[in-house]
Amino acid sequence: QQKVQQSPESLIVPEGAMTSLNCTFSDSASQYFAWYRQHSGKAPKALMSIFSNGEKEEGRFTIHLNKASLHFSLHIRDSQPSDSALYLCAVSGNTGYQNFYFGKGTSLTVIP
Amino acid sequence: NAGVIQTPRHKVTGKGQEATLWCEPISGHSAVFWYRQTIVQGLEFLTYFRNQAPIDDSGMPKERFSAQMPNQSHSTLKIQSTQPQDSAVYLCASSLGNYAEQFFGPGTRLTVL
Fold it and tell me: What DSSP assignment string belongs to B5-60?
């Protein structure tokens, strides 16, 4: 079964800062990697996803995937108070099934 | 589109009682997932249906948990003889297909006294 770990557990940054969140996983055969964001009391919502090694940018958000090093990261440029949330790393299993294995999350607080 | 609907939003049971949680996926989505979220364990996968067929229940505690999807418009998660350690937010999600975005419902907060 896929093991997913996230670091740090929590992070406080000032508004405008660059924020970096990390995720490691145990099985390089996984096909699909995603970041979800969960605001307090709300349901998780997909942020970005990637299938292959490399980088993907959407607005202020960039994700990096390196399957050989079992590492996946999310970078937030010009962090805003509205970015304050729990960020969940999701990695698919290696069997072709669609279920995700999630990390425990990084709690991000952006201070105005 | 109303999104994924989960009922009830909150449920309180006594130890040993049964709890049934309901999920209505987004119309047209072929996959339905159940997860459980706690502070200590995070978001844990429980089970998954594709086109109403059970595909993977590797995350389900076998003895007291069961899930069904009798039709394409709803799925149920049943917990028999609930225990305090079952207290959690139970989340249902649906998606269009392989490696597609999962859309989560608001969750059912189960409290077992």
Answer: EEE-SEEEE-TT--EEEEEEPPTT--EEEEEEEETTTEEEEEEEEETTEEEE-TTS
Cis peptide before A44 (omega within 30 of 0): no
Token look-up 């425990």 returns A104
Both tokens assigned to B81: 């003889």
B107, A43: Cβ pair inside 8 Å?
yes
User: Which residues in chain A come in under a pLDDT of 70?
Assistant: 94-97
Amino acid at A103: G
Strand B10-13 relative to strand B108-112, pairing: parallel
What is the SS3 assignment for B84?
helix
Contact assignment for B98 to A98 by CB distance below 8 Å: yes
Q: What letter represents residue A15's amino acid?
A: E
pLDDT digits (tens, 9 = 90+) for B40-70: 999 999 999 999 999 889 889 989 999 999 9
Tokens for B8, please give them.
């009830």
Q: Which residues of B touch A92 (CB under 8 A)?
A: 99
**CA–CA separation, B10 vs A108, rounded Å?**
27
Which residues of chain B are under the pLDDT cut of 70? 1
